[in-house]
Amino acid sequence: MAIDTTTGILPEHDARFVKTPSRISWGAIFAGVVIAIAVQLVLGILGTGIGLTMVDPVEGTTPGAAGFGIGAGIYWIITTIIALGAGGYSAARLAGVHDRFDGLVHGLVVWGVTLILTLYLLTSAVGGIIGGAFRTVGSVATAAGSGIGAAAPKVADVAGVDTGDVRDEASAYLSTAPSDPAQMTPEQAQKEIAKELPALARGGQDGAQAESQIVDIVAAQRKISRPEAQAQVTRAKAQFVKTKDNAIQTAKSATDKAAGAAAGTSFMVVIALLIGAAAAGFGATAATRRRV
Prior knowledge:
Radius of gyration: 35 Å
Helix content: over 70%
């Protein structure tokens, strides 16, 4: 009687047709992502409730904005560690992985998918608001750094003012002003000086002509000599330039502080994300099953 024995190993010509089993379970990863987001939401709502209990405007015991922000940041990092750790552990456990590297990959994929979903939700919900705010800040910063001549149109754009309408309105006011400064009323003289100020700020030949016109108006209106009027205009011009430079410096300083704060926040977010990845990987490797 013949006995058919097999070794359990496929012949070499048949081994290539065997499908290699997948080492990653997307179903388990999806479940881990759902659990991570759910835990994050629950803990976030809990943190909001805890924070609201600390607000007491009647007794004046409400924490300051700086302390409240630091506490919220620390709480967010803790909840992220818990949520991603639970998600990575669940994914690796459901996948039934026996290799620590496979478990680590499951945890990191859970972290990555959760991060992508979170960024998508943030950009789709509040991206327009954040983008509009940064565009406004950028317009103001550009206006501050480009001098008075370019600042006026930029600031007008930010404020929603049509510079064309302003020029038309100014022309209507000044159209009836006499050319002789001595015949101008005080109101007409003030409007004429205001019309010459942009050219004075630009400097150059137009600035010199504008300054000469302003000196003539001041001398005629105050009935003083032209050298005295020139001295007054020179002092006013120096004060104007000083005020302009201070305003530009203040705007630049505010922009530098905002950029520094944004850079610091970016570094903190990166550190928090790396901590979240470590938590997801640790939770997944902790769930790795040993082979029997």
